[in-house]
C-alpha cells in the first residue's frame, strides 16, 4: 500500500522524453517524494491536435492509476480522446495527462499559489517539447487552472480551457498575457462557485473566469453533477472541450441565457419584459 503524500515540495525540472514505464507511454516520470507523471494517450509526435489535461488537488503518482477516484485523470483523458476522435474523424489527435507539479493537498493548501508557482515552468517546457506543428490546448480543472494561468504567457498554446476554476490569479483575461482563446465553464452544481475570490500576494486566485467582464468565452456543460464531472462521457461538457481541442470553435455551444419572462402590462396595453 502506498503511503499518504507528504508536504515536501518537488524541486528540479522534469526531463521530457518518450518511453514506456508503469505499463504506459510516458513523456516524463519523477518517482521522488510523492511523484509526478506525464502520460501520452495517442501519438502526440504526429498529432494535428493535442489536448493537455492539467488536474487539480490531490493527484500524484501514488494514486494516478486508481481508476475509481473522482478526479481520475487517466479515465478523463481517454474519454476526451475518444470524443475528439468522434468530433474530428480522420484527424490525428492525442491527449497528454500532465500531473507534472506537486498538487495541493486538501482545501487549505489550495488557497496558496505556491504549488502553481513551483510547477508551471515544467508545463511551459512541455508545450515546447510537443511538436510545433500541432495545435496545443491546455485544459485545466480546478486548481489546474491556476497553473495554466501562469503558463499561458510563455507557453506555446492555441487555446486554454478553464473548468471549475477557483480563479486564475488575475482580475481579467488581458492580464494573462495570452494571445490565444480562453474558454471557461462552470457546471450547474459545482461547489467551486462558493470558493473565496480574494487575491493578496500568493494567497487566493482572484475572480472566476466565468465572471461577466472577465473576457473568457463561456460554454455549456449540460446538467453534469458536482465538481468532477466535466469529462463525463456523452456530456455536452466533454463534447465542447473536444470541439475546442480540435479547432471546431463554431460548433461549441455557448452558455444558454434564460429567455426573459414576458407578461402583459394592462395599464400600458403592451407586452413588456419582466
From TrEMBL:
Residues of the DUF1023 domain: 31-196
Protein name: DUF1023 domain-containing protein
